[in-house]
Amino acid sequence: MAVAAFHPSVSQAALLEFLLRIGDNALILGHRVSEWCGHSPALEEDIALSNTALDLIGQTQLWLGLAGEVEGKGRSADDLAYLRDGFDFRNILLVERPNADFGKTLMRQFLFDAWHYLLLRALRDSSDKRIADIAEKAFKEVSYHLDRSRDLVIRLGDGTTESHRRMQEALEDHWPYTGEMFLADGFDAELAEAGVIPAPESLKAGWEEIISEALLEATLKKPADGYMHKGGRRGVHTEYLGFILSEMQFLQRAYPGATW
Amino acid sequence: MDVAPRPSIDEVWHWLRQVPDPEIPVISLTDLGIIRNVAWQDDTLVVTVTPTYSGCPATSIINLDIETALTQKGIAKVRVERQLSPAWTTDWLSAEGREKLRAYGIAPPIDGTAPDGILMKRIDRLSGTSNLSISCPRCGSAQTEKISQFGSTPCKASYRCTDCLEPFDYFKCI
To answer: Against a cut of 0.90, is the pTM above it?
Structure first.
């Protein structure tokens, strides 16, 4: 197979790093959400969560497939998903956080969806056509994810005393993990300069607008910006990632190359 | 050895019109609008397919069904290629396909209502009105309500008719 041509002014390292980041976000959140399959509070929610997970896993195949192509070492999307170790993963910490209760799952989804939506919307105009093509596809799916997670955050926030309490708690719990979405390093700067990706901080105002409007309607109080956790984007993860990987990768580790 | 005459592109389209969608077998792959192109490349017939949803589990079955159908018609070399852009949209569902869906009990998509980056206006959400009016495929009533954004397959949402009380699937716009 021909080695993929990349944007002339962009280094392979930067492009690969970005593709792993966006692909790993979809993969790890997709896996997390799929843990609800068969356990959701209502049949419709079970179906909705499974569908969301399916979309994210589908997007993972596209992003990590392209990552493997850019890397040029013959690794497939499956190889990257199943045969890398924790420190190789580039997802933000928010998506590896445990599901806990339904409220925490939904709040994590909403905080992520609002950002994912804005990121993909901007990536549709990427100067790298392959990235723009995947974003065009994924954006349509993620628009539905955001519609749903935002709607449920509003309903449960502005719901019963108990649902309100849980949603407020979920918000405060996840908030310190949202800052990582807008961090940038040398790779981001290089790619943003070449028009491959939007500068991460450029998404912040739009994200805050979506979040603030929904929280107002949900009668939830936005936490003050304080300390923000980081590390996932450079492979430094919470202990939760290891548990996800041990479950997700078990089969390929125990029976290398197994197919069905 | 005699080589069978190469079938025309029109003939191939005709054959593809008979390949059913694996999940909603009342419509064909061409009704669904996912086959973007058919062309000969030397002795290989290349069929270009665009996926409905990126994680749709039917994708690999669809590719297999296309290869099987064309091989059975005597085409020795078939290659199915994926094309992501322009992304598939329900606008490409054929008129005939929409009628088949309705008859099967699935409300067909209403064009132009896909989420396009403009989130539903707050006032509409608060007042419970929607830009969608979806008729019940069983009794035709427009008195229906959404149960869930998602349904039994990635391409559907769950609705309920408040007149005849039947739940039904809506083939949602994307």
So the answer is: yes
